[in-house]
Amino acid sequence: MNKWILPLFCISLLCLGMTLPCLAWASQKNTPDKPAKTSAKLDQMFNGVDSDDDGKLSLQETEQKAPGLAANFEQIDTDHDGGLTKQEITAFSQLVEKNRREFSRRLQLADRNKNGKLSREESKSLPALAEHFEEIDSDHDQQLVIK
After folding, report:
1. CA–CA separation, 39 vs 25, rounded Å?
2. Residue 94 phi/psi, 5° resolution?
3. Which helix or strand (DSSP H or E) is residue 9 part of?
4. Are 100 and 9 in contact (CB under 8 A)?
5. Is the pLDDT at 135 greater than 80, yes or no?
6. Torsion angle of alpha carbons 140, 129, 6, 106, nearest 10°?
């Protein structure tokens, strides 16, 4: 059942009109000691993908080396100039993290009996989740593990 936590999360983000980029640093919590580490990881990833060293990632570069970015290219490229900057990637990642926290909060609220699982009845408070309950419930025990 735990293997359905990520698909459950993705369904929620799709309902919000977003998908999750494949960047490990996107899910890191912002703490005073982590910005430098996060920035260093972003710099390393960015420089590895920016093959022409122009300071922007093109769709072609992301398709070749960062499919998670390519899949979300139009959403990340907020100025629609055809290139992703570090600032655009950072802003998108922060928005994804904010949405992840909100979805987690909503899952916790839906779990009325606080057992770490959502029954079909509990899932009704999250319509997009309830709509896909059968698909997510891979072991067909009528419960979705959320912890």
Report:
1. 9
2. -65, -40
3. helix 5-15
4. yes
5. yes
6. -120
Give the Cα-Cα-Cα angle 74, 75, 78 (nearest 5 degrees): 90
Residue 11 CA to residue 33 CA, distance in Å, equals: 32
Single-letter residue type at 58:
S
Q: Which amino acid is at 119?
A: S
Token representation of residue 48:
């590895």
Model pLDDT for residues 39-89, shown as the tens digit of each residue: 899 999 999 999 999 999 999 999 999 999 999 999 999 999 999 999 999
Give the length of the chain: 147
Q: Alpha-carbon distance 84 to 69, whole Å?
A: 9
> What is this structure's pTM?
0.68
Pick from 135, 136, 134, 112: which is nearest to 122 by CA? 112
Alpha helices in 28-132 (DSSP H): 35-49, 59-65, 67-71, 73-76, 86-110, 120-123, 127-131
Q: Pick from 37, 23, 26: which is nearest to 101 by CA?
A: 26
Radius of gyration from C-alpha coordinates of the chain: 18
CA gap 70, 60 in Å, rounded: 8
Structure token digits, residue 7:
């698909």
